[in-house]
């Protein structure tokens, strides 16, 4: 069958994404044919487009989507045509009206979770889940630091951490974003452009520092984030929207208090199907209970993905962004 997809034939700026007709075959063993209702936009899509994370050319970007199963291949017993499903993992190819997908990477959507909401929260929400529940299990009474607190992952982490009983310090780039973060559970928004966030963290914690920093910004925040940690604290570097973290002497971790450093990824945390299903289940539960609200603050036509990328890179987006086929 023929469908349309965004294709990238060479790495570069948003303009390298072109809307093309593509041919999809029937689902093979272990695969399903999925028709998208919505596709999620994430910063990792920019990394693939620019070649920072190389992908074989040409390719269709995108790691997150939700929709309806149209056909299943041999050996697929967990899903059948008509099932509503979602995913947030490789293989690349979400920026398409329809696609083939390995069945073992899909999760079924419960009643009460729409395809649009699922596509807006799967990657960011399961990232928040592993950060808060597995990488550093946040406890009641913890004070934590979250960078980009008004971003997609940031807003979810703020809400979920507050539900777990934590006090949340979050860096933001503007007063508007400070208000947004505050409305979603961030107790202490810090404007990093005009305030010294490390000094503010020390002030808020009475000089003690925080047990964990969740940092998706990278280059611009990494070293100063180490100064925010208490002894034996954990630096969680899970993104690099400002650029790659430059090489540094690991002796710095010792000098600043025997710190831990990890560079986790959702793909590792959900590599086993049991972990994928459990992560999605816990995410769906907190959303259905209203503990975590998913904010779809921008939508674009899928064929206009270039405009969405420009706005994402220009820090013009907040919360979640959908691309609609």
Describe the structure.
With 325 residues, this protein is α/β, with parallel strands linked by helices. The protein contains ten helices and 15 strands. It is 30% helix and 27% strand. Strands 3, 4, 5, 6, 7, 14 and 15 form a seven-stranded mixed β-sheet that branches. A hairpin with an 8-residue loop joins strand 1 and strand 2. Helix 2 crosses helix 3 (152-163) and helix 2 (115-135) crosses helix 9 (273-288).
Question: What keywords describe this structure?
Answer:
325 residues; alpha/beta; Quinone Oxidoreductase, Chain A, domain 1; Rossmann fold; 2 domains; six-stranded parallel sheet
List the helices and strands and how they pair.
Blueprint: E1 2-8, E2 17-23, E3 31-40, H1 43-50, E4 64-72, E5 84-88, E6 98-102, E7 107-108, H2 115-135, E8 143-146, H3 152-163, E9 167-172, H4 175-183, E10 188-191, H5 197-204, E11 210-215, H6 222-226, E12 229-237, H7 251-255, E13 260-262, H8 266-269, H9 273-288, E14 296-301, H10 305-313, E15 320-324
Parallel strand pairs: 8-9, 8-11, 9-10, 11-12, 12-13, 14-15
Antiparallel strand pairs: 1-2, 3-4, 3-6, 3-15, 4-5, 5-7
Helix pairs in contact: 2-3, 2-9
CATH architecture verdict of the largest domain: Alpha-Beta Complex
Number of strands: 15
What order do the helices and strands follow? EEEHEEEEHEHEHEHEHEHEHHEHE
Strand content: 25-35%
Q: Average pLDDT across residues?
A: 96
- The end-to-end span amounts to 16 Å
> Shape, please?
globular
Write down the domain tally.
2
CATH superfamily of the largest domain: Medium-chain alcohol dehydrogenases, catalytic domain
Question: What is the CATH fold-level name of the largest domain?
Answer: Quinone Oxidoreductase, Chain A, domain 1
What level of helicity do the residues show? 25-40%
The class by helix and strand makeup works out as alpha/beta
The value of Rg in angstroms is 20 Å
- Which CATH class of the largest domain applies here? Alpha Beta
Q: Which sheet architecture does the biggest sheet show? A: 7 strands, mixed
Low-pLDDT runs? none
* Count of runs of 4 or more consecutive helical residues: 10
